Amino acid sequence: MIYLDYNATTPIAREVAKIMMPFILEDFGNPSSAHPMGKRAKEALKKARGQISRMLGCDSNEIVFTSGGTESNNMVLKCVAWGLRNKGRHIITTKIEHPSIINTATFLIEDGYDVTFLPVDRYGSIDPEEVKKSIRGDTILITVMHANNETGTIQPLTEISSIAREYEVLFHTDAAQSVGKIETKVNGIGVDFLTIAGHKIYAPKGVGALYIRKGIEIEPFMHGGGQEMGLRSGTENVILNVGLGKACELVLDNLYDDMSRLSELRDRLHDQILSAIPETVLNGHPEQRLPNTLNLSFPGMIGEEILNEIPDLCASTGAACHDRSLKLSHVLEAMGVREEVGMGAVRLSLGRPTTEAEVDQAAQLLVETVKEKGGSLRIS
Length: 380
Fold this sequence. Notes:
By secondary structure, the chain is an alpha/beta fold. The chain folds into 2 domains: 2-8 and 255-373, Aspartate Aminotransferase, domain 1; 14-251, 3-Layer(aba) Sandwich (Aspartate Aminotransferase, domain 2). Helices cover 41% and strands 13% of the residues. It is built from 12 helices and 12 strands. It has helices at residues 14-25, 36-56, 69-83, 99-110, 128-134, 157-167, 186-189, 238-276, 303-308, 330-334, 339-342, 356-373; strands at residues 2-3, 63-66, 90-94, 114-118, 139-143, 170-174, 193-197, 208-212, 281-282, 293-297, 313-314, 345-349. The protein has a 7-stranded mixed sheet, sandwiched between helices. Helix 4 (99-110) links the parallel strand 3 (90-94) and strand 4 (114-118). The longest helix has 39 residues, at 238-276. The radius of gyration is 21 Å and the shape is globular. The chain starts with a strand and ends in a 7-residue tail after the last helix. The model has no long low-confidence stretch (mean pLDDT 95).
């Protein structure tokens, strides 16, 4: 089995699993308890928060633990909207965001808010000038993903940040796909909020974090005992949180080596497929994209059916949450990709364990399938 679906989820790193085990079997205390077991749990949370903050280049008290990317995105949009509703009810986002942004924005529209969904160019890139033109007197939040989960296209966040600062509008990025793949220092990209999803960086599913710039006050997302600086009450999940912290430490240790190695493997995979099937189309920006992500279309074919013919290859035809659907991806649709091209899209995303041999075998399997069975897999 060849796994090339690391944008969907990653395995838990051995170092992460190891650090979690004592909190499963022994140190199960409540971090709010005053006895030694509680204090050990509290110290573990403090350490994990510090590991995340070092990866992002921020203070540890700017990190809030969540259950994952979806909750972090919901928390930003809803809590900013509720907290600033007297200032304004306009939010700016894009047409290529993850469903946890798009569907939350749609929910807010039904609650009386106004949302501008910005278009993208053929590479899936946002024009910062379009952001600037969309800002109004009642704009309270701009949210633009750092890198797209389907194409890997990286957005010009520093330029958008400058515009947000100029107009004094809060700025959020969903960095679920970029964390661990490219540098995500919050001051470097200039955001007020940043979303992390643990299972994209070799931590467990069901854990994430939200960076909130110091001095910004938003409404609490969950009320209760006042944990997580009063923004997300509830007894902290020490087991998952320490795993996330360790995963972020590994990102710091491995980021630049991973970037270099994975970009070489990605290009090797692309070159082998393109040389055998010259009509293959690259979806996304040819340069400003994640080092591990390759989204290719085989025009006139159906990506879903290509992958069905290769059970030993784990890959996607789009984002995992709506994968294996015969509907054109909303991302490719927003990019203006023609249906006969977009329906043949296959997303191949590489990860830390990916080997050269796996890349070569995956290329061979795809080429053989497209060439040998292409006629029967074409759009009717």
